[in-house]
Amino acid sequence: MIPVARPDIGADEIAAVTEVLQSGMLAGGRCVAELEERFAAFIGTKHAIAVSNGTVALMCLFKGLGIGEGDEVITVGHTFNATVSSIMSTGATPVFVDIEPDTYVIDATLIEAAITPRTRAICPVHLFGLPADMAAVVAIADRHGLPVVEDACQAHGAAFWGRRVGSFGHGAFSLYGTKNMTTGEGGLITTDDDRLADWIRLYRNQGMRERYHHEILGYNFRLTDIAAAIGLCQLDKLECNTARRQAIAGRYDAAFADLPIRTPVTPPGRTHVFHQYTIAVQQDRDGIVADLAAAGVSSGIYYPIPVHRQRYVVEHGIHADLPITDQASMDTLSLPMFPGLTDADQTTVIAAVRAAVGHR
Ligand SMILES: Cc1ncc(COP(=O)(O)O)c(C=O)c1O
Questions:
Q1: 194-203 and 54-64 helices cross at what angle (nearest 10)?
Q2: Is the distance from CB of 61 to CB of 68 less than 8 angstroms?
Q3: Tens digits of per-residue pLDDT, 117-153?
Q4: Among the residues of 65-207, which ranges form H helices?
Q5: Omega into 312 within 30° of 0, i.e. cis?
Q6: Listing from the earlier edge strand, what are the strands of the sheet with 72-76?
Q7: Which residue's CA lies nearest to atom 10 of ligand 1?
Q8: Is 179 one of the catalytic residues?
Q9: Is the pTM of this model over 0.85?
């Protein structure tokens, strides 16, 4: 079966992990600091802070911005659960706006109408590796004096007119096993805000600057040196792997040009890093998924139930009408996309998609 995603782990990662294991310094060593320094330079921010996963990265940002009970954060329903659960973890309420039908990212024209006196932040999601319209989002945020939290968990290296996502506002990245850059589990926060960075560094480390002096209520959200050693190798090959993802996307685009499906749309000025290659079909999405599986091709549905329709959100009394989001949950599927996808396997995927879509 050809998988939808597979991490690119090679001899470098194995050697780097072995070195950390042999050093006896599994946590609190040099790798975490080096990963933070190099990732901040890569994104173009003053600070990068490593944490245990992307969910925690988002939680730290919302909490660190002082968001809590009675506050609202504007975001999307067409995203992974953690965008929303991290907002709600602070006691704040997510306010959902719909997405653009062709790009699946936040429809910035809808944001302003969703702003109320309780709004405390705007959280666009750079879904599937495509940046949201950051010119529009930042303009609105500036007009209303609101911080922007970028959910960049799927968008390492993606850029908007040449500037990397995670540097427009405060960024949250995931290093989960299927992401464009992975440490198995892990997360990174990017920001230019010295005060926020300092607070998050305390918060992730039991509230301690000095050992056993707990300045604030904090927890253990640290990344290990074992994970950071993998992260450094992954960062070394991120740009090369991104180029491979873009080449795979280009071949899919050409191969599907005559089919009645919508292939990913990349508006001018945006650099798509293709965490996913997601298509929209006109009918029988689930039948197409079954046909692909029968042909040995895995596919993913991201996401079958939008977050605004999840039980815990509905039970919280939150309601939103998001017709474009609902449509995307019904007619999209994602195809195998990872740097190690061979040309031969991609040929198999293309033939399977053409057959499954063609006979409907
Ligand atoms: C859009 C989005 N937000 C947040 C997360 C949470 O990241 P993690 O799984 O590392 O907690 C993910 C990753 O799964 C994601 O895709």
A1: 120
A2: no
A3: 999 999 999 999 999 999 999 999 999 999 999 999 9
A4: 81-88, 111-114, 134-144, 194-203
A5: no
A6: 93-97, 72-76, 119-122
A7: 54
A8: yes
A9: yes
